[in-house]
Amino acid sequence: MTVNRESKQHPRAPVQVASFIYDPEITETEPPDHVTAIPEGPQSRSMTALLKAEWFLERSLYFGLVLMGIGLAAIMFVQVLLRYVFALPFVGIEELALLMGAWFYFLGLAYVTRNGEHIHGGIVTLLIKSPRKIQGIRLIMTVASIAACLVFGYYASKYAIFEIERGRASSYMRWPKGLWSASMIIGFAGTIIYLSLQAINQIIDLKTRLSIVKKG
């Protein structure tokens, strides 16, 4: 099937041209845009105030990702030098790598959820043509994701608290293992916050679409 139309899919900040919210473009009509935690366009006063407060969370996640990414690359470089140049491998670097990797992963989980740039399945847009139904299904998927994150976050928190209370330490550096486990708590908490914002925006979008239908 040949489709001649201009796609409305567009890159999103901060990566611009290299990142897209993508749906398969083999349908006859353009699927409705994904509604994310951070809506585009003019907003109500309450939403504007909420987004201003969210800015601090976004900056914390962003700089945390930058710090952990640079730190992880740096210690891997140092480990290569110590192991293969000076023949003095430092076992503690392996623990530091796992620590930074865990924080990088779970901070990234929340940050990607904020921008709605995680992997999307496109089967819905192939089988369903109604934009309202598509957005309704996406809302259900968001609610299901919140439920899953609540379950996983609960057990992650339970495990982290268990390690902190027991005073468990890493094998070589003897650092509190709660430092590793805390990344899961922060990651799931941030993800739940952004999925909740996304669900609110999806509900607003659905109400707007329904009101347009009623007026029509």
UniProtKB/TrEMBL annotation:
* Segment forming the signal sequence: none
Q: Does the keyword Cell membrane apply?
A: yes
Per its UniProt record, what InterPro entries does this chain match? DctQ, TRAP_DctQ
**Pfam families recorded:** DctQ
Topology relative to the lipid bilayer, per the entry, is: Multi-pass membrane protein
Q: Which UniProt keywords apply?
A: Cell inner membrane, Cell membrane, Membrane, Plasmid, Transmembrane, Transmembrane helix, Transport
The entry's localization annotation reads: Cell inner membrane
Q: Which residue windows are transmembrane per the record?
A: 61-82, 88-112, 139-157, 177-197
Q: Is Cell inner membrane set as a keyword in this record?
A: yes
Q: Where is the Tripartite ATP-independent periplasmic transporters DctQ component domain?
A: 72-202
Family membership noted in the UniProt record: Belongs to the TRAP transporter small permease family.
Q: Which PANTHER family match?
A: 2,3-DIKETO-L-GULONATE TRAP TRANSPORTER SMALL PERMEASE PROTEIN YIAM (PTHR35011)
Q: What does this protein do?
A: Part of the tripartite ATP-independent periplasmic (TRAP) transport system.
Q: How does it assemble?
A: The complex comprises the extracytoplasmic solute receptor protein and the two transmembrane proteins.
Q: What is this protein called?
A: TRAP transporter small permease protein
